[in-house]
Write a structure and sequence with these properties.
This protein has helices at residues 18-33, 42-48, 54-64, 75-95, 105-114, 127-138, 163-171, 186-194, 245-254, and strands spanning 6-9, 118-123, 148-151, 179-183, 200-203, 218-220, 232-235. With 255 residues, it is an alpha/beta fold. Helix content is 41%, strand content 12%. β4, α8 and β5 form a beta-alpha-beta unit. The structure holds xylulose-1,5-bisphosphate and magnesium ion.
């Protein structure tokens, strides 16, 4: 295994708990603005998270949970427009600062950047959502340390397909052996692994803590801060209190 050269981050659920109080709320706002009586409660949204991608998730909802709804002639266009409005609501929620970074996220990003580790994002979400989140967390001047943002529809197949990771690796001229990935979900873990990345830390949240994370390098409840240690839920390093660069390098050397 070569030296760890790059760290690739998922966004939703990993950098921040965006799903329940961000995306879900934005979907519901878009539904009511469009005059639809659809409502995705916290429990239903958990089921809908099986499918990644907002447009794909709306279609999955119609196919599995709301089959009686009479579809318009051009469903693709309808879904795209609804999703565009949802994205506007999500960006506003981010700009209002309602959704903070998860513990340890900014600490680890800074540590990796200071050590010259290359940083990238590989996410299913819409690019404007990532921009809004990074502006909020790192300042509005594009001051974040990410070299590449791989997001949304740049690839046709979303996670758990490996496409977004492969796209990022190709753009950065990296081999999967050079990288570690940070994910929060089974779909994300599978995407990274299918792209050949074997060092994957999974940091679970309320929507993913019952998922199965086969062959993850480490499963934790958060990345941890000095005053708020993480809990190891699976994998090596059972005494870890924080995910830091030293720990990532050890996991990478093992994998
Ligand atoms: C994120 C997603 C996204 C967001 C919504 O998955 O599944 O669909 O919920 O984003 P991951 P959009 O964290 O694995 O990348 O509505 O912008 O698609
Ligand atoms: Mg995620």
């Amino acid at each position: 295994m070569s030296e760890l050269a790059a760290l690739i981050w998922d966004v939703d659920g990993t950098l921040a708990d965006t799903e329940r109080d961000g995306h879900r709320v934005a979907f519901n706002n878009a539904f009511s603005q469009a005059g639809l009586d659809w409502h995705w409660d916290v429990e239903l949204y958990g089921q809908l998270l099986k499918v990644t991608g907002g447009k794909e998730r709306i279609r999955y909802y119609l196919d599995e949970f709301n089959t009686a709804w009479e579809r318009p002639a051009n469903l693709d266009r309808f879904v795209a427009e609804l999703h565009r409005q949802k994205s506007e609501f999500f960006v506003s929620l981010m700009e209002e600062g309602r959704i903070p970074p998860r513990p340890g996220v900014i600490r680890l990003i800074q540590e990796a950047a200071d050590a010259g580790i290359r940083l990238a994002i590989a996410t299913t979400t819409t690019p404007a959502n990532v921009d809004a989140l990074l502006n909020r967390f790192f300042g509005p001047q594009g001051d974040h340390p990410f070299e590449l943002i791989a997001a949304g529809d740049v690839v046709p197949a979303k996670k758990p397909a490996p496409d977004i990771y492969r796209w990022a690796l190709e753009k950065m001229q990296l081999s999967p052996d050079d990288c570690a990935a940070i994910e929060d979900s089974r779909n994300g873990l599978l995407a990274a692994q299918s792209a050949g990345i074997t060092t994957v830390v999974v940091t679970v949240n309320g929507y993913t803590d019952n998922e199965i994370f086969t062959d993850a390098s480490l499963i934790v409840d958060q990345l941890g801060e000095p005053e708020s240690p993480l809990q190891v839920l699976g994998g090596a390093e059972s005494h870890a209190t924080m995910v830091d660069l030293g720990l990532l390098r050890r996991l990478h050397a093992l994998s």
